[in-house]
Design a protein that fits this description.
Elements (H helix, E strand, L loop, with lengths): L7 E3 L13 E2 L2 E2 L4 H6 L17 H8 L2 H5 E7 L9 E6 L7 E8 L4 E9 L7 H7 L23 E3 L15 H5 L24 H9 L15 E10 L10 E12 L3 E11 L6 E12 L6 H6 L1
Antiparallel strand pairs: 1-5, 2-3, 4-7, 4-9, 5-6, 6-7, 8-10, 9-12, 10-11, 11-12
Amino acid sequence: MSFPTVLSLAGPLRQPRQMLADQEYGGHSSIHDDAMAEKLGFRAGPIEGPTHFSQFQPLLARIWDNAWFERGCISSHFLNMVVEGEAVRAFAEVPVNGATSTRAWAEKADGTPVLEASASIGPGAGPTLLEQRMAALRPPGKLLILEDLKVGMTGAKDERVRMDPDQNMGALYPFSLNQKLAVITENSPWYSDASASPWERPIIPFEMLSVLFEYTSRDAAFPVKGPAVGLFADQEIRLIDGPLFVGEDYVLRREIVALAESKRTESYWVRTRVFDARGEKQVAEMLLNHATLKDSYAGYAEAAKS
């Protein structure tokens, strides 16, 4: 007997930790600082969006087993901010046998949506959530903060990155992998113990892939005006030949693939391609929508009028 009923997996309620209160970029505090967040009209410094990716790992590993860590893709649109102390639950629909994509989402304890996402494995799974969102973007009006950016603009140089267990990940991420693992919502021995990992090496957690890929983002030298405060509005992380390993060298290449505008933000979408240490074989990719808050740029309203 079969039923058309769609079933979903649900994880436990978790309280993710805020680790970016001391984040600094462009010579000023970020939106994750409570004072800066309140100045911009938010009640407190939010937890960074990809922090929630960890809560999906048990669900998506249950659906696709180890293939998820080798060829998985999570494509997320962030809906509402979460502050430390709030509880969040992750959900994923159970796909039919053989399906390579499904829907995922996260909610606060009271049902407030946190993010919506698509999850998939391998190529040929159809357009991801962010591929659909990017295809629907309308051309922006005249940009001010981003007026010197152009679609197709690439980073100034190849960026070389790695993540060692006790390596501080810099001003953007002032903590190490080991410090993250001490508070991560869903830990696994695969993240720290080579003997426990199916790949015989510790692997980098999905949420820390975002940290690795943004570690050297300043080196891209995209001419964004400032000071201005930004946030992640959309993010997609795709493994092509994964997993990515702790203590391994990688090469990053960035390209601006879209520009957009809303009432409150100017946005630039960056595709970061991740290659092996020789820069020859692509192993992963990230699509990230940097949304820059207009109100955080001094004199924005007056300059826009003129």
